Amino acid sequence: MDNTKKLLDQIKIGPRTAQNRFFIQAMECNAEDESGNPSEKTTQRYVELAKGGAGLISLEAITVTRESRARDNQLTIMPPNETALKEFCRRVHEANPKTLLVFQLTHSGEISNPEFSKRVTPNPLPGYGGELLTEEDVERIMDSFVTAAEIAYRAGADGIDMKLSHGYLGCQMIRPHNDRDWKYGGSWENRSRFAFELIERIRKAVPDENFLIGSKISAWEGFPGGFGTEGPHSPIMDMTEVIKLVKGLEERGASFIIQSAGSPSITVSLTQVDRHIPYYAYLHQYWAKEIRKALKPETVVIGSNFSPFGSGKNGLCAVTPEESNLLNYGTWCLNDNVCDMIGLGRQSFADPYLPAKLAEGKEDEIKYCLLCDRCLELLIQQSKVGCCAYDKSAHEELVRTRKEKGNLTIHHT
After folding, report:
1. Among 57, 12, 94, residue whose Cα is nearest residue 355
2. Smallest Cα–Cα separation from 191: which of 162, 227, 216?
3. For position 3, what pLDDT does the model report?
4. pTM
5. Distance CA 114, CA 76 (A)
6. In the chain, at which end, N or C, are there fewer CB atoms within 10 A of the end residue's CB?
């Protein structure tokens, strides 16, 4: 435990304090009720995560509209959901008052599922597309985000993550592919307008500095015209606009940035590194460190893709299992100023109690993610998501899903 003690250090996020350096990523579970309210299954997951002792937890992507969404049973944050969200926050904070909880606000845009919602887009990607957004549409969507932030505040959340990642609408607006000639497209000044005006409006609507505002970004989407590329037709990585984005968010009040990459509907292996290519995870640490170098020391940078390191039996070559296990490698990242907190995604499904087990000296009891990606299979199939390796009910859901919907034929959301 001595080598990994820094993972248990407190850290200031804005005026708030997280009890340790563990961050629980927003992992969609697709288990909500027909109105988008947290189900008992959803609530219990986050109660367990809070009991597990993470410093900061992000609620899975919660949509600001039912009109355009990616999941059939997606969490929703609109006025009718406020009472249920207030009860949800009460139970999570009651389970552990020290754990901070933020809501990841999102709109799916052109990756909305047309089977039950409407696809809209700033500029259609080949194979996706949808109804072209007007400037008036964008204004209404921004209003929805602001309303959602106000609801989150009243419900008892400790802040929001303004999602600008993973191919969702916020990411669609800022990527170079949005080269359409309109108020929100073409130049960086126009493409960044959505993100920068939105964070300003949210902070104005919720002026309480104790209410944290941050953003998850995809540092490189990995396809021509994606965010983090050099232009609308190029896949080549270029960090110029990534750095402009995070610095602009910081200047407007963001107290944390969550580094990620890829778009799960297009380049899922960048977003969630799989066991066949574990070394992709090293790319995430490069992106996190470049962001860390660009921002003020007090702005918290959260790194991603630590689940692939697991127990050290991860398929990585030229390193020892001791050097490359999640706890030791995560500690090295903190010590080397790669990031300030480490994000756990699939690992949080495998063992929500990892932080508490480390704090109690029970590292040998940690259940590490096996990177089987059956949780991802459940998400792609629009089924309830959980860890099929350690959770019997999730395994039963997988069996049912395969029986009713057949084997998975695509490997993207």
Report:
1. 57
2. 227
3. 83
4. 0.98
5. 17
6. N
CA 16, 18, 22, 24 dihedral sign is negative
Q: What is the pLDDT of residue 187?
A: 98
Judge contact between 148 and 102, C-beta under 8 A: no
Count CB atoms within 10 A of the CB of residue 33.
16
> Of 247, 74, 23, 270, nearest to 165 (Cα)?
270
Radius of gyration of the chain (CA): 20
Question: Tell me, what's the pLDDT at 24?
Answer: 98
- The rounded distance, in Å, linking the Cα atoms of 138 and 131 is 12
103 backbone dihedrals φ, ψ, rounded to 5°: -105, 130
pLDDT range class, residue 402, cuts 50, 70, 90:
very high
Do residues 378 and 397 lie in contact, with contact meaning Cβ atoms separated by under 8 Å?
yes
DSSP letters spanning 54-96: -SEEEEEEEES-SSS-S-TT--B-SGGGHHHHHHHHHHHHHH-
Task: Please say whether the beta carbons of 373 and 272 come within 8 A.
Answer: yes
The token pair at 232 is 């609308």
Which domains are delineated in the chain?
A: 2-371 (3.20.20.70), 375-413 (no CATH)
**Distance in angstroms (rounded) separating the CA atoms of residues 62 and 74:** 7
Give per-residue pLDDT as tens, 279-310.
999 999 999 999 999 999 999 999 999 999 99
Mean pLDDT of 113-122: 97
| Nearest alpha-carbon partner for 50 in 105, 77, 88 | 88
| pLDDT tens for each residue of 330-365 | 999 999 999 999 999 999 999 999 999 999 999 999
Query: Residue 13: beta bridge partners?
Result: 16
- For tokens 């969702």, what's the residue? 168
What pLDDT shows up at residue 351?
98
> Angle 151-385-350 (CA atoms, 0-180°, nearest 5)?
105
- Closest listed residue to residue 217, CA positions, set 303, 282, 122: 303
Query: What was the pLDDT predicted at 1?
Result: 52
